[in-house]
Amino acid sequence: MKQNDAVFGACVIVLGQDGFDSAVELTKEQRSVVVGMVTDGIMSGQVDFSAEARAKHDTEAKVKTYVGGMVSNHLRKDKRLNGGEKYEAKAPGSRAGSGDEQLKALKALKATLTEASDIASVDAAIETRLAEITVKKTVAININALPEEFRHLVK
Predict the structure, then answer these.
(1) Residue 38 to residue 11: CA distance in whole angstroms
(2) 45 lies in the same domain as 111
(3) Which domain holds residue 116?
């Protein structure tokens, strides 16, 4: 069973409803039961969990921690649980460059600095690096479909 289906199914059981007209809000106790049910499903092999995830989360306590975050994620993003809303990130782009080693090193260096001028120069290097690795979306625009007064705006 897919993880999102497991979270949805657990919510249905805990709340005693087949569907939800508005966003699901769980009490602390209900959330604990949902997390427990999904954790049990993962531990028993009934809920999908990749080999990489099993290697990383090798104890029931680690799986339970993972599932807690996963439940929060599905309550926000699954349209069956969030009132049918399309999920929009609160701070889009805030994780830009999080996998870049040079950027990580620059941020770690900045955390060790105390001189304002040194911090400013590292900040400038961080901004430059972010600009280098940030991929700008290119959108294909059919210039012939645009009204004449807007065609000069296409670059």
Answers:
(1) 10
(2) no
(3) 95-155
Q: Clarify whether residues 100 and 152 are in a common domain.
A: yes
Predicted local confidence at residue 29, as pLDDT: 96
Query: What is the token pair recorded at 148?
Result: 């004449």
The amino acid present at 106, given as its one-letter code, is: L
| Average pLDDT score, the chain | 89
Q: What sign for the dihedral angle of Cα 50, 52, 54, 56?
A: negative
Quote the DSSP letter at residue 148. G
Residue indicated by tokens 């969030």 = 82
Strand, helix or coil at 23?
strand
Q: Is residue 113 predicted with pLDDT exceeding 90?
A: yes
Q: What per-residue confidence (pLDDT) applies to 20?
A: 85
Given 3-state DSSP classes, what are the helix, strand and coil percentages for the chain, each rounded to the nearest 5?
Answer: 60, 0, 40
The amino acid sitting at 17 is Q
